[in-house]
Design a protein that fits this description.
It is a single chain. With about 260 residues, the protein is of the alpha/beta class. The chain has a single domain, classed as Rossmann fold. About 30% of the residues lie in helices and about 25% in strands. The protein is built from 8 helices and 9 strands. Strands 1, 2, 3, 4, 5, 6, 7, 8 and 9 form a 9-stranded mixed beta sheet that branches. Strand 7 and strand 8 form a beta hairpin. Helix 4 crosses helix 5.
């Protein structure tokens, strides 16, 4: 099975991703999972292993980037390639990853930022041609989309007896509307829906690669600790499920699999 978990920072995506079949490997692109107290016990017990991606978004110094904001980085960014190499090794059944029953990519939003920097670097080397004035797709979105499509097709189709969980941040989609209040024109922002926080066409296509797409929802308990839930359906959220689930489920992947008769 594969799952896409979408939500705001702090909504419980990483914690929920650690509730699947163990042992679990987190490919930690965000660089935060290893420091999260809430999953420390699982890490100490050996149920969860965190593999941090420590590559910087850009290797150039901050002063160099500030002084030359319109120029591409001089040092090739490595974060995207580092991450993809790990995922490729998992798909090719490298023995060091054989024991893991669940693979977590945390998060796609940060991975897409690494890829954007890499494409900007390549554009600066002349590999994508010259920048065109007012070209909103610069760097090349075609390359971006194709690379992500290949990655997610592989991870969602060829892991065989293992589960894949991907987290991604949430983007609120709004639309500006105009209305008359008396003799005045008033602008207002209307929320149209919620999408994964990545750029371009992949934002609309991403959910199609996954069996299950859940949006993170939470309630406050009596002691004011959050109770994390999965929203499993809703057009505004693009949430969907093929399993016999309620609209809201406790954010526990193992319980979802048991309820559905998969485990």
């Amino acid at each position: 099975m594969n799952f896409l978990l979408v939500g705001q920072p702090g909504a419980g995506k990483t914690v929920s991703a650690c509730t699947g079949r163990h042992p679990t490997l987190i490919v930690d692109v965000d660089g935060k999972a290893g420091e999260m107290y809430i999953i420390k016990e699982k890490i100490d017990r050996g149920d969860v292993t965190v593999l941090p991606i420590r590559d910087k978004l850009v290797g150039d110094t901050f002063s160099a980037r500030a002084l030359h904001p319109d120029k591409p980085p001089k040092i090739q960014p490595t974060g995207y390639v580092t991450t993809v190499d790990i995922l490729s090794s998992i798909l090719e059944k490298a023995p060091e990853y054989d024991k893991y029953k669940t693979i977590v990519l945390d998060s796609l939003t940060r991975l897409s930022e690494h890829l954007t920097r890499l494409l900007i670097y390549h554009r600066g080397q002349g590999l994508f041609g010259k920048k065109v004035a007012d070209d909103m797709s610069w760097p090349s979105w075609g390359s971006y989309k194709a690379n992500l499509e290949e990655l997610f097709y592989g991870m969602c189709s060829y892991l065989e007896d293992r589960d894949f969980i991907c987290t991604v941040h949430e983007k609120t989609m709004t639309e500006t509307t105009m209305s008359m209040v008396g003799s005045q024109v008033v602008e207002s922002e209307v929320v149209k829906g919620f999408k994964p926080l990545i750029d371009g066409q992949m934002r609309d296509k991403l959910a199609g690669y996954f069996n299950e797409v859940y949006y993170m929802d939470s309630l406050m308990s009596k002691n004011k600790d959050p109770i994390y839930r999965f929203r499993t359906r809703g057009n505004k959220y693009d949430a969907r499920t093929s399993l016999p689930l309620d609209e809201f489920e406790k954010s526990n992947i193992t319980e979802i699999l048991k309820k559905s008769g998969i485990l």
